[in-house]
Amino acid sequence: MEVLKGSGNDPNDPSWNSGAKVKVSLAPSPIDSQPNHYIREAWANKEYGTTKEADVTLGSEGKKFYIRLEWSSNVEKHAEFPEAAAVFFPASESPSSPMTIGTRENPVRMWQWKNRLPVQSKLPKVLDLIATGPGVFHPAKTINGSNQSQSLQGNGTFEDGKWKVVISGDLDVVVGSKKMGIAIWNGANQERAGLGAVSTEWIDIDLAGIGL
Q1: Dihedral over alpha carbons 98, 99, 103, 105 (to 10 degrees)
Q2: I need a labelling partner for 55 at 20 to 30 A (CA). Which of 17, 20, 149, 200 fits?
Q3: Which residue from 107, 173, 99 is spatially nearest to 142, judged by alpha carbons?
Q4: Which residues on neighbouring strands pair with residue 154, listed in sequence order?
């Protein structure tokens, strides 16, 4: 997938219209991969991962990497859990399926955005995580042990039944991977942790357009 030269954190910026938009298919994360028996039993016969597809556009100005996601949502419905989206990057050159959202042997770096509820307004909108399976997420740390979430940004708008979200972080993370998966949680359907919709295939990132 080509990367637009430029762009920024505003999902409604007209410059996004000049980038290649790719429609990515999503499917529910496997029920047998959920982290504990209770979740597997409680959700065995319930519908989750209800977001079927998302439009993806990529951009970079040379230092940061911007991912714009757009998907349909029933956000007007009262939700106990927030709408959320994430992008994740495998560290391995031969990663397992993105549907696993990482494994212990092959973890992935995840940038997760949440439409924070009013009671969560002081929490960061984007979390920097290491994922080793659906719902098995841990804070990412630098070599000196500090959390990286402050280097990430995320902005989202909802209009006409669609979310438009931009998540951005350091380009170096992407250069080291060149593959990406996405996940979306429909909060109105009580989706959270490992219960979400995940891209069925890895997205190959083509950085040639920005000289890499």
Answers
A1: -50
A2: 149
A3: 173
A4: 167
CATH for 106: 2.60.40.1190
Token pair listed for 12: 């409604």
How long, in residues, is the chain? 212
- Distances in Å between the Cα of 169 and the Cα atoms of 10, 81, 97, 121, 129 are 14, 25, 23, 21, 12
- Domains of the chain: total: 1
Residue 129 lies in domain: 4-210
Question: Which helix (H) or strand (E) is 38 found in, with range?
Answer: helix 37-42
Tokens standing for 125?
């909108």
Q: What is the rounded CA–CA span in Å between residue 89 and residue 199?
A: 12
What is the structure's pLDDT at 150?
A: 58
Q: Identify the pLDDT of residue 7.
A: 84
